[in-house]
Design brief:
286 residues; Rossmann fold; 2 domains; 13 helices; 45% helix
Length: 286
């Protein structure tokens, strides 16, 4: 069995940083986690990817093509479509450059797929779902990980926006899913004091900020209340905090994701053989 995380989130939510710190944490644990870059617009990241979509196609290729003439958003969509159409290239790269998929060691094959920051790819377009289905057909056990910057989740309107984005991704991809509040280390003391408010949120209370403080909220009060009730009554969205400077925080999150994808449960139980105790030949103890 092969394991993978599909790392998603809005631009600037810390996806590449998440992948880099997860990889370093795994190295400290004597564990192997590799990263695949599937963002054709990436310019810099703090990890060495085993596969890089930019070796197949770059965003500039789509934007500078005289026939296509895409903008940044359309170019990203085209690049992901091009990847799906050239899936044999991706499978070969994941297999270490061999056309034989069995060349991969399934016991050590744990991969983070660092995705573009265009969440339309996962909220309503088909490319995200097609990629998930493709990886599942290659014997990957997957978990989708959706990052939201914690600095933008501490008031009612922002909470509603982030929660609905996460819910849209969950509904579209239909996969085991973990929502992460990233950049907890960047929160101010006053913001951290509100930690419980948005880690285990009361949607109705948070959405009260919308209905009381804006004309739109007052006009659509019943709609906001209905959304809050939907989130609360069905426990659809919960967030896990992540502070990349705290090893315990990284470990707790990795453990949750490992449980979701059942990482290691297929491994053989390791036992240690002990030598039998030596017999006592001393006749003085008869």
């Amino acid at each position: 069995m092969r394991y993978a995380q599909i790392v998603m989130g809005p631009a600037g939510s810390g996806k590449s940083t998440y992948c880099a710190f997860m990889q370093r944490h795994a190295e400290d644990m004597k564990r192997s986690i590799n990263v695949v870059n599937l963002d054709p617009a990436a310019e810099h990241f703090d990890y060495q990817p085993i596969v890089d979509i930019r070796d197949l196609i770059q965003l500039d290729d789509a934007m500078e093509d005289e026939e296509l003439q895409y903008g940044p958003n359309g170019g990203l969509v085209f690049c992901l479509e091009f990847l799906i159409q050239n899936q044999d290239w991706l499978r070969t790269q994941l297999s270490g450059g061999s056309d034989d998929e069995t060349d991969c060691d399934p016991d050590d094959d744990y991969i983070l797929f660092d995705m573009p920051g265009q969440i339309e790819l996962f909220t309503h377009l088909t490319m995200g779902k097609e990629l998930v289905n493709l990886l599942e057909s290659w014997n990957f056990r997957l978990c989708t990980v959706f990052l939201v910057d914690s600095q933008f989740m501490i008031d009612g309107p922002k909470f509603l926006s982030g929660t609905m984005a996460a819910l849209s991704v969950m509904a579209n991809l239909e996969m085991p899913h973990v929502n992460v509040l990233s950049k907890m280390d960047l929160l101010s003391k006053s913001a951290r004091s509100q930690l419980d408010k948005y880690l285990d949120p009361d949607p109705k209370a948070l959405l009260g900020d919308i209905t009381e403080e804006s004309s739109w909220g007052r006009k659509h009060q019943k709609l906001s209340q209905a959304i809050g009730a939907l989130i609360e009554d069905f426990s659809l969205v919960r967030f896990v905090p992540l502070n990349v400077e705290d090893e315990e925080s990284v470990q707790d999150l990795l453990m949750q994701i490992d449980n979701v994808i059942q990482y290691g449960e297929d491994a053989d139980v390791k036992i240690r053989d002990f030598d039998p105790p030596e017999e006592n030949d001393d006749d003085d103890y008869e």
